[in-house]
Amino acid sequence: MKVHVISETPFIMKATGVHTAFMEHIELLREKDDVQVVINDEGTGDIFHGHTYGLYYIWKGRKYNGRRVFTAHVIPDSIKGSLPVWRLFMPFIRLGLKIVYSYADVCIAISPMVGKAIKESGAKTRIVNIYNPVHIDTWRRTADNRKKGRERLGLKENEFVVLGVGQLARRKGVDDFLDIANAIPEIKFVWAGGRPFGGLTEGIKRIDERLRSAGENFINAGSVELEDMPLIYAAADLMLFPSYQENCPLAPIEAAACGMPVIYRDIEEYKSLYKYKYLKARTTAEFIRLTRAMISDPQYYEEGLRISEQLLMQFDKEIIREKLIDVYKSLLNNWESSLLLSTPLIS
Fold first, then answer.
1. What is the mean pLDDT of the chain?
2. Contact at 8 Å (CB) between 20 and 233?
3. Which of 213, 216, 262, 280 would bridge with 239, disulfide CB 3.0–4.6 Å?
C-alpha cells in the first residue's frame, strides 16, 4: 500500500505544530515496510492523506475520490486570538472548514473536542479519533543537547530555565508568559516561536512592544527549525503552556518526553483529551505560584517529572500507527469493492 501524504507547511509554515505533526506522521509510516510513503509532489499513491486545508489539498486530492483522509488540526475556535478581527472572519472560516472536512472520506479528529467541532460543522464525513503521534526518542534529553541548547540561548549551566513554545499570538498565552517572567526575575524565561501568519497575526504591535520592554531574565528565541527544537527543550527545566485554545498540542508532550514538568492552562479541551493527571493553572497568579513551587520544592519537581512520564503513555506510537493503517485498509477495500460493483459484466 502506498500513502500520499501532503501538507503546505514545508513551503510556508515550517515552524508550526501542524508541520511537526506532518513530519511525525511520515516518520511513523516509514518505521515498517508495509507502507510506502509519497510526499507532496513526489508522485501518487493508493490513499491520500492531507494535513493542511488550502487549495493544494483540494488539487492534490482530486483523483482520490473515496480514498481521502484529512487530519483536522484546526477548528473554527483555533482562530480566536490568532487573527485580528477574527469575529468578522468566523462565518467564512466555519464554511471553509466544513468544505475541507467534507472533501475527505475520513476525518482524523486529534482530540474529542476536534471530533465534536467536525460533527457540529455539518460536514458529511466519517470521523475517527486518533491522537497526534509523538516519537519520544527524538525528544529525549541528552547532556550534549543540553549543552548546545544553553550555548545557543546564552544560558549558564546553573540557571533554572522556564520554557514557552508557540506562536507569538494572544491565543498562545505569550502575554501571560511575560507577566510570569516579570513576577519571577531571579530565573530565566525563554519563548520559542514566531509568526507563521506574518502580518495577519493578532496583536503584533502590542506583543512586539512587550518583547522590547521585557526584563533581562526573558529571552526571545524566535522561530526555531524543527530539527533544532530538541536543543531548546533540553536547555529548559520546566515548561509552561499557557495557551487559551488547543486541540492535541505536541509541544507539551515533546517537553514531557525531554524529561521536564509541564504546567498547562486549565481549559476544557484537556479534560476530554488527557486520560492521566496533568499539572494545571487557571490564572497567571496560579502559574506564578506553581512555578515558584517547582523551583523551591524538589519533591514537587519530582512529582512533576512522574506526571510527565505518565502522560507519555497515552501517545504510544505503535497504537496510533495501527489505527491509521486500519483506516487506510478500510478505505482502500471499500474503494476496490465499489469498482468491482460498478464494472459491467462481460457476457
1. 91
2. no
3. 262
Q: For 2-133+316-342, which CATH superfamily applies?
A: Glycogen Phosphorylase B; (3.40.50.2000)
Residues of the chain within CATH 3.40.50.2000 domain(s) are 2-133+316-342, 136-314
**Gap between the Cα atoms of 127 and 116, Å rounded:** 9
* Amino acid identity at 238: L
2-11, 228-237, 286-295, 332-341: the lowest-pLDDT one? 332-341
For residue 184, what pLDDT is reported? 98
Quickly count: other Cβ atoms within 10 Å of residue 62's Cβ. 10
- Please state the three-class secondary structure of 13-32 as a single string: CCCCHHHHHHHHHHHHHCCC
Parallel/antiparallel/unpaired status of strands 262-265 and 218-222: unpaired
pLDDT tens per residue, range 286-328: 999 999 999 999 999 999 999 999 999 998 889 999 999 999 9
190 forms beta bridges with: 163, 219
pLDDT in tens, 70-114: 999 989 888 775 666 667 778 888 999 999 999 999 999 999 999
Torsion angle (degrees, nearest 10) of CA 3, 4, 5, 7 = -170
Report whether 82 contacts 171 (CB < 8 A). Answer: yes
Note whether 232 and 149 are within 8 A (CB). yes
Phi-psi domain of 134 (left: phi exceeds 0; alpha: psi -120 through 50; beta: other): beta
Residue type, 34: D
Q: Give the amino acid at 277.
A: K
Which CATH architecture is the domain 136-314 placed in?
3-Layer(aba) Sandwich (3.40)
The runs of H, that is alpha helices, within 104-203 are: 112-120, 136-139, 143-153, 174-183
When pLDDT is averaged across residues 214-222 and rounded to a whole number, the result is 95
Reported as type and span, the H/E element at residue 192 is strand 188-192
d(C-alpha 232, C-alpha 75), whole Å: 28
CA distances from 277 to 79, 236, 237, 281, 312 (A): 28, 22, 20, 13, 11
